[in-house]
Write a structure and sequence with these properties.
Blueprint (H helix, E strand, L loop, with lengths): L1 H17 L8 H9 L4 E4 L6 H12 L3 E4 L3 H13 L4 E4 L5 H12 L5 E4 L1 H4 L2 H10 L3 E4 L22 H4 L5 E5 L4 H11 L5 E4 L7 E7 L3 H10 L5 E6 L2 H13 L4 E4 L5 H12 L5 E5 L11 E6 L6 H8 L9 E7 L1 H13 L7 H13 L4 H8 L19 E3 L3 H14 L6 H9 L4 H6 L15 H13 L3 E4 L5 E4 L1 H7 L9 E3 L17 H21 L3 H4 L2 H10 L4 H4 L7 H21 L1
Parallel strand pairs: 1-6, 1-7, 2-4, 2-5, 3-4, 5-6, 8-13, 9-11, 9-12, 10-11, 12-13
Antiparallel strand pairs: 14-17, 15-16
The structure holds adenosine-5'-diphosphate and zinc ion (ZN).
């Protein structure tokens, strides 16, 4: 019975409050689990719309939900976003004064709050527990629930305190949300939170709106610049492995006229906050960052995530690349890698007192992802245990035909291996490439390596091509890198077998020189030049409204809403309400400003 009338009801709330015409995949099931008073574990990819799963029931039933969230910075934005939809929300954390917190607790006690965001450590404080018991929350929502698991990539000890939740509030349902799909993490979450017979919902992990590209890193600055050019005027994040690279690259970009701010743990709190705010408030479009602090950088209209170095696992890659296109619109994820990244991570793991179990295997799987010229979407989802529709995805460099398999790959591999063998494991990949391409360096002359048979064996290739082939042979296990004082490359047993003709190497690839002209992915054509002008005008309106209210622009409207507006060109409140993301509250609050801009545009055009 319940099902029969609840469904249209919540949908009505969804339309009225959020202005969304329907649910995203599994959202409705997740909302139902909450309304039915069950426990649940909801695993949806980044951008899958996890927040709505607990926000919609609280708004719909007008009850109190307590949301556990790890990041103070994101709490405020979430609360601002809810308030812009007319939903009473508040947060409690250490950034507030005692008085501010007392006011929030009073509002909660009076039943005036629908969604209360708190940090995990606060939730179990004795005084707070008492206050909360009196307020009788309808349920708890634990966001980023993988933080409770040591198997996750972002374990936070304070999340362990949530074990107490079940005893402190025995009758209150608990719901957990995460984007981390691995089964051990899932099992850990259920056990640690003591979820009772939970509804478990696991979404599809593929992100069809992301275009993946993976390229050997040959000239970091140039490759990053070319990619950023494809997204001029749009939000982009560039990830580096080390802080020094962040500083270097952001300075180099700035010298080329790209306004980019650095973000890493070596900056003062103040600098970090300033740079993050500049990005979130759309005053700057590009942030160059280490991965450690990515979680605090939240903007749903990020159009490009560029990895200037290889991440240490596919879990990390999925998480970081997943920050692109959270609004569901097309976005690009470019990964620039080199075999040296593998060695770097390995030495980092070893320096940290021996790699944790599985870390080296994960690193190897990451390298495999970089090296194997197979569909990136398929490779990612199969890694996470899901299958992918057969046929080309149309949204990765492999399926778009941007990667060229060297037609004479076997011959090239043999020559590269012969070069590695000739140098007997005493030199690095750079010198091997110099010898093979027949370079005339002082080192080669002094060592008389120009007399080797391998000298100039790949004269027609560029040094960069040869470097990437060495990297690919490293990945295929035919060459190995020794991490002594100077990293050198040597032949492995299988490499020797190839030279003896007893085994065949795998295919070698190189990026097509024309890759840059390739389409930016499905939907790119959607935004014609005419709409582009209106879209930019609407962005300006949004920025003004956001500034006046002291909130980030995406809290006013997402890019997806602005595009819908630019397409529909509504000139009355009734048609304005049809725009995706326009609920009653936002229509009343922001309608006039946007409608005026659209009317002016229409009259002029
Ligand atoms: P997650 O936390 O899973 O990464 P979010 O909750 O931040 O995802 O939502 C991602 C984006 O999808 C946001 O821009 C949000 O406004 C949008 N969104 C969520 N639910 C819907 C829906 N039912 N219809 C349209 N857009 C939605
Ligand atoms: Zn593909």
């Amino acid at each position: 019975m319940d099902e029969l009338f609840q469904a249209p009801d919540v949908r009505e709330t969804l339309r009225r409050v959020w202005g969304y015409p329907g649910f995203l995949p599994l959202q409705e099931e997740a909302v139902r689990a909450v309304l039915d008073g069950r426990d649940s574990l909801v695993v949806l990819p980044t951008g899958g719309g996890k927040s709505l799963c607990y926000q919609a029931p609280a708004a719909h039933r007008e009850t109190l939900a307590v949301v556990v969230s790890p990041l103070i910075a994101l709490m405020k934005d979430q609360v601002d976003a809810l308030r812009q939809n007319g939903v009473a929300a508040a947060f409690l954390n250490s950034s507030q004064t005692r008085e501010q917190r007392a006011l929030v607790v009073r509002d909660v006690a009076r039943g005036r709050v629908r969604l209360l965001y708190v940090a995990p450590e606060r939730l179990v404080l004795a005084g707070f527990v008492e206050a909360l018991r009196r307020a009788e929350p309808a349920f708890f929502a634990v966001d980023e629930a993988h933080c409770i698991s040591q198997w996750g990539h972002d374990f936070r000890p304070e999340y362990r305190q949530l074990r107490a939740l079940r005893e402190l509030f025995p009758g209150t349902p608990v719901h957990a949300y995460t984007a981390t799909a691995t089964p051990p993490v899932r099992a850990d979450i259920v056990a640690e939170l003591g979820l009772k017979d939970p509804v478990i919902l696991v979404g599809r992990f593929d992100r069809p709106n992301l275009v993946y590209r993976v390229q050997p890193r040959t000239d970091r600055l140039r490759q990053v610049l070319v990619a950023l050019e494809r997204h001029a005027g749009q939000a982009a994040i560039v990830y580096c492995i080390r802080r020094a690279e962040v500083d270097e690259l952001s300075a180099a970009l700035a010298r080329r006229g790209v306004k980019a701010l650095p973000y890493h743990a070596g900056l003062t709190d103040d600098e970090r906050r300033r740079n993050q705010d500049a990005f979130v408030d759309e005053r700057v479009d590009v942030v160059v960052a280490t991965v450690a602090f990515g979680m605090g950088i939240d903007r749903s209209d990020v159009r490009a995530v560029i990895h200037a170095g290889m991440p240490k696992s596919l879990e990390h890659y999925q998480q970081e690349a997943g920050r692109a296109g959270r609004d569901g619109l097309e976005a690009e994820c470019l990964l620039l890698w080199s075999g040296a990244d593998y060695g770097l991570w390995k030495s980092v793991l070893e320096r940290e007192g021996g790699p944790p179990p599985g870390a080296v295997r994960k690193l190897g799987e990451m390298l495999g992802f970089c090296q194997d010229p197979v569909c990136r979407h398929r490779a990612l989802v199969t890694y996470f245990g899901q299958d992918h529709a057969p046929g080309p995805c149309g949204a990765c460099d492999v399926c778009l035909g941007e990667i060229e398999t060297a037609p004479d790959g076997a011959a090239i591999a043999t020559r590269v291996l012969a070069g590695v063998a000739a140098l007997r494991g005493r030199f690095g990949a750079g010198h091997v490439a110099d010898v093979l391409t027949g370079a005339s360096t002082e080192r080669i002359r002094t060592l008389q390596h120009d007399r080797l048979e391998a000298y100039g064996a790949l004269r027609e290739a560029s040094k960069q091509d040869v470097r990437t082939w060495i990297d690919q042979l490293l990945g295929q296990g035919h060459v190995e890198r020794s991490d002594g004082e100077y990293p050198t490359v040597t032949l492995t047993a299988s490499g020797a077998r190839i030279l003896r003709g007893e085994e065949a190497p795998g295919p070698l690839t190189r990026p097509r020189k024309t890759a840059r002209a390739a389409p930016a992915g499905a939907g790119a054509a959607e935004r014609g030049p005419e709409n582009r002008v209106l879209f930019e005008t609407l962005r300006g309106v949004r920025r003004g409204l956001a500034e006046a209210r002291g909130v980030p622009p995406y809290v006013v409207f997402s890019d997806a809403s602005l595009r819908d507006m630019a397409r529909l060109k509504p000139v009355s409140p009734a048609t304005f309400l049809q725009v995706k993301g326009v609920g009653e509250w936002k229509c009343a609050e922001f309608g006039d400003a946007f409608l005026a801009a659209i009317r002016t545009h229409v009259a002029a055009g």
